[in-house]
From TrEMBL:
Name of protein: Chorismate binding-like protein
GO biological process terms held by the UniProt record: L-tryptophan biosynthetic process
Pfam annotation, one family: Chorismate_bind
Organism expressing this protein natively: Thermomonospora curvata (strain ATCC 19995 / DSM 43183 / JCM 3096 / KCTC 9072 / NBRC 15933 / NCIMB 10081 / Henssen B9)
Domain Chorismate-utilising enzyme C-terminal: 72-316
GO molecular function: 4-amino-4-deoxychorismate synthase activity
Domain of life where this protein originates: Bacteria
Length: 337
């Protein structure tokens, strides 16, 4: 079996020491890689050695033909169903997603894909992980939760375009709606009066895209740790909808396959330093049962135009799929060990 490792923020973690599905481990000791699927399956992996180092060199081969869990007609119908639910007062917003899958060629190593993403689509919360039952190459731009002692922060993204001019009033309204949801979620485990919004609807540029990003900050109440924090806020509000419980019920009916790590949480926790950062699992590839998978989606409101929302899912996926195919990087570079 290939050696397990995690690479994040220029650090390489090796020496698999523990693997558990109990998030309470994140408040114990050691350095952990963390993956939580959208459906709530928790994987915490402790590594014994963490040092500054590049990603392990590994080969990558482009995947086969991509297939989508929802085609254009199915996605458009889903958008229309969400708009009907909004009209009926069931939800205010919901994030409709689809999962792409393609055959994974023999010999393709997730570390090779992680290296391609680092060059072709650098991201603030990038992470590559290979461990028993988990193979992920993440290029997420979105912070789900960071923690420094008792101070926690979330930076939800809502609103995406190629340029600033593409961002619409609908995008700002959607962002504000999700900020309210995140404030309420954090308020369940925060000291009273500590929840703040230092930045609302700031514009951030990422490779090929611009986003509206807000920041929500709070201080954990005494006795609350990672298990309570995740339980209070998961799944991330930016990839579910509002009200969250109603959106989750609706999306379960509209999405034909599980999201897996997509829209879940991917990141690290240093239990000794009481620090950590978990990204929202977007712009994320994962290998599973001989397939490479990738998710994409869009937030749907009453003002959504169904075809435009489909195109937004294509826009979000396009650059990442090009990188995975080695396009623009040269086939020799894409395949090199």
């Amino acid at each position: 079996m290939q050696e397990a490792f995690a690479h994040v923020g220029g650090l390489l973690a090796t020496g698999l020491a523990d693997l558990t599905d109990d998030p309470a481990a994140l408040d114990s000791r050691g350095w952990w890689a963390v993956v939580v699927t959208y459906e709530g399956k928790v994987t915490c992996i402790r590594f014994s050695r963490v040092r500054p180092a590049p990603l392990p060199r590994a080969p990558w081969r482009p995947p086969g033909e991509w297939r989508s869990s929802l085609d254009r007609d199915g996605y458009v119908a889903g958008v229309q169903a969400i708009r009907e639910a909004i009209a009926d007062g069931i939800v205010y917003q919901a994030n409709l997603c689809r999962v792409l899958s393609a055959p994974l060629p023999a010999g393709a190593d997730i570390a090779g894909l992680g290296a391609l993403l680092a060059r072709g689509n650098p991201a603030p919360y990038a992470m590559t992980l290979r461990a028993p039952g988990v193979q992920i190459a993440c290029a997420s731009p979105e912070l789900y939760l960071s923690r420094d002692g008792r101070v926690v922060e979330s930076r939800p993204i809502k609103g995406t375009g190629r340029t600033r001019a593409d961002l619409l009033p609908k995008d700002r309204a959607e962002n504000v709606m999700i900020v309210d949801l995140v404030r309420n979620d954090l308020g369940r485990v925060a000291e009273i009066g500590s929840v703040q919004v230092p930045a609302l609807c700031a514009t951030e540029e990422h490779p090929g895209l611009v986003h509206l990003v807000s920041t929500v900050r709070a201080r954990l109440r005494p006795g609350a740790g990672w298990p309570e924090l995740i339980a209070a806020t998961f799944p991330p509000g930016s990839v579910t909808g509002a009200p969250k419980s109603s959106a989750l019920t609706l999306l379960e009916k509209l999405e034909p396959v599980p999201r897996g790590p997509y829209c879940g949480a991917v990141g690290w926790v240093d239990a000794d330093a009481r620090r950590g950062a978990l990204a929202v699992g977007i712009r994320t590839f994962w290998a599973e049962e001989g397939l490479l998978k990738f998710g994409t989606g869009a937030g749907i409101t009453w003002g959504s135009e169904p075809v435009r929302e489909w195109r937004e899912t294509e826009l979000k996926a396009a650059r990442l799929l090009e990188v995975a195919a080695g396009e623009g990087l040269g086939q020799r570079e894409a395949a090199r060990p």
